[in-house]
Amino acid sequence: MRNTIVERSAQRITESGSNSAESKTQKSSPRFFQFARWFRRTGWRHCVAVVACCFAGFPILYILSASLNQQGTLMSANNLFSHVAIDNYIQLFHLPEQPYGDWYINTIVIGLSTAISSVVVGALAAYAFSRLRFAGRRVGLLALILLQMFPQILSIVAIYLLLTNIGYIVPALGIDSQLALICVYLGGALGTNTYLMYGFFNTVPKEIDEAAKIDGAGHARIFFTIILPLVTPILAVIALLSFIGTVSEYAVASTVLVAPQKQTLAVGLYAFVSQQFSQNWGLFSAGAVLAAVPVVIFFLFLQRYIVSGLTAGSVK
Amino acid sequence: MIQHDSSPSRKDIRKKKQANRVASQASTRIGTMLIKIVLLGLVDALSAYSAFMLAEQGNWIILSIVVATTIVVNWIYFRRDGLVAKYLTPGLIFLLIFQLFAICYSTYIAFTDYGTGHNSTKEQAISSLIQSSQRRVQGSASYKISIVECGKTLNFLVTMPHGEAQIGSEKTPLHEVASATKDDAGQAVSTPGCSTLSFNDLLSRQDEVTSMRVPMSADSQDGTLKTADGQTALVYKSLLKYDAAKDIMINTQTRVRYYDTGVGAFTSKGGSRLSPGWQINVGISNFRQVFTSQEMRGPFLQVLVWTIEFSVISVASTFVLGLLLALVFNNSRMKGRAVYRSILILPYAFPAFLSALVWQGLLNEKFGYINQVLLHGVDIPWLESPALAKIAVLIVNLWLGFPYMFLVSMGALQSIPKDLSEAAELDGANAWQIFRLIKFPLLLVSIAPLLISSFAMNFNNFNLIYMLTNGGPINANTNMNVGSTDILISMVYKIAFVGADRNYGLASAFSIIIFIVVAVVSAIGFRASRSLEELN
């Protein structure tokens, strides 16, 4: 009995020990058992992971291959990577009726402005809720959570009619104005982001701003030069999530933006591909790949922050 | 003297306050002050501009709201106290206009018949009816005209039957012109201050000229002048005549009378309506229609049930797959986890509307990769058969949603203290028991709220449905434009913005029903998750 326990603990020690120690002890055992053991411990995990990665990555690999296939139909796209040419990408920018270049720039401009303004607006509000004590603070927070459940797409009719009416007064903020679209998105910013930011702001110790206050710093300086640098991770997450959300948003953008050269990628590409689905496949794929590249790169670059941001955001 | 020390006089307090103010003013940098002034200046400029426009239109109510808001905003940022307002105002303004007001406005619209044929006031409807029903008056004289441009507006310079000249544009009815030059045939051809359009000008501005309607007089019943060639004009009169005293519309040709019977349009005794009508409050009729009308109740219930099924199954399937993967990956001995994770979250990073379109290609019946290559050339109607389309939607949503669940489950698993499972291991629990009795309940506490918000998100997952199946395949049993994979929100979008017959009122009523359903489910969910928290 005692022997087995000693053996087990010895085993545990070797397992947790460094790799070199592990390989030394295992050198004597036959190769097959070594593999079986490895498989039982972590090998099967790799199998599962590979299968899951195929499921997750395949559609993206497929669209990449289709974008490089100059034959350009849905049928021809099935021969993965049979052709590699960038014809589709070149042709994409020379379409007679679809201003892809404009869509791209519009999407980037609208996405970035919405992301940056949402972060600014959300950070200001989160700071107030986290650091200042005022009547209605708790009610305000609750109201924001409640508002989160009424996404803007539900009031899409009202937004459309509201912008139509604003357009009679200030044409630059009416239907078919990108500025108006950004304003609409900003309206949803406080509801979606404040609570996530509020949780993160709370993790910054209050002693820091109290110390700064004693040293004579005003509230603006505390906010901009002390708090903001400390909460950069959540700012990055919010900016990224709101950028992705804006890039993908279709319903509101399609009702607000009318002229083709003012539309975003979501509106334009959808109209383009739904006209002649299988014929335009190559061009659509190229457009999709180009549209996804900046988003995916940002995402992978910031993924560590995103993971912490998502779990911090869980309402407790 | 002693008294003076213990209770400082008002003078001293004021001095101290003044000193504080000077100190704080000295500490604010000029740069920040400048930014503040510039931003406020922009806001003020915008509201001054809209105030002018509003004043021009005589819209005094909104004008006063704009002015009041501007004054409040300036007051907030120029006074010293009121820190909270300074931080909350920027976000709150947008929230109030585009979220709160929009919600209230859609509630209001839900109780109206706003939509195609009912989108203006009664006065506008009357003038547009009279405008659009104009016909050439049989046997009326034709007038010799010249087109002249005065400033930037085009005018008809008309030679009347008795030889005198009159001038008028779309905005100003015909009136006498002081002096006009006439050609040999007695037709007025030019007038001081205006340039006459040459034949070539006429050709190049043909569309502009032929679309003009110049009123004969201030009374709209006298008709308008319209030209086809830029040289002669004919009188057009409205078929419809509005009798303001009796509030009836009369067709002058058929003598049919149309009455305002309270349905938002002029209606004849026979029941035919004149379009456009105007917007009226219809009370709960939109809601009543949803729940009681034969042709709408069936599709609505079907869509409601599918929406709930779709969101529940989506949350469950993504959570199960995400959690399983997180458990598999939650092993520090496994190598290459960072690489795997980067690939696994690709579906989350890829813009969702694109993913749905890509999957639409993959699942295409005739040419798609899944039928052609993976299944060796079969013809499975993934998106064309009602049952398979639902399955396809769920699979694609699993693909879209599992990375998020994977990430949050991973985070939650890592935040569970290791000593708990170690202690259980010492007590002889096996891996399944540790998971079921220790890790899962703890995990659920932190993830349950996320599951609820994921449910609410999927309930309104417009992009997936609209881009993947467009709600189809179309349900042949109903007259409504509703398919078997339509969820409530895509139905709202179709009712409001797709097709010729837009019904904003009904769409808003549906929005409100969605809101109520989501709110109720979330409330139940949050209550359950709170009791879950208390249990642990």
UniProtKB/TrEMBL annotation, chain A:
One of its GO terms (cellular component) is plasma membrane. GO terms for biological process: maltodextrin transmembrane transport. Keywords: Cell membrane, Membrane, Sugar transport, Transmembrane, Transmembrane helix, Transport. The chain crosses the membrane at residues 47-68, 103-129, 141-163, 179-201, 222-244, 281-302. Residues 1-25 are annotated as: Disordered. It is a multi-pass membrane protein. InterPro entries: BP-dep_ABC_trans_perm (IPR050901), MetI-like (IPR000515), MetI-like_sf (IPR035906). Belongs to the binding-protein-dependent transport system permease family. MalFG subfamily. This is Sugar ABC transporter permease. It comes from Bifidobacterium aquikefiri.
From TrEMBL, chain B:
The lineage of its organism: Bacteria, Bacillati, Actinomycetota, Actinomycetes, Bifidobacteriales. Residues 304-525 form the ABC transmembrane type-1 domain. Keywords: Cell membrane, Membrane, Sugar transport, Transmembrane, Transmembrane helix, Transport. PROSITE patterns: ABC_TM1. PANTHER family: MALTOSE/MALTODEXTRIN TRANSPORT SYSTEM PERMEASE PROTEIN MALF, MALTOSE_MALTODEXTRIN TRANSPORT SYSTEM PERMEASE PROTEIN MALF. GO terms for biological process: maltodextrin transmembrane transport. Pfam families: BPD_transp_1 (PF00528), TM_PBP2_N (PF16296). This is Maltose/maltodextrin transport system permease protein. It is a multi-pass membrane protein. The chain crosses the membrane at residues 60-78, 90-111, 303-327, 339-359, 391-413, 434-457, 504-526. It comes from the Bacteria.
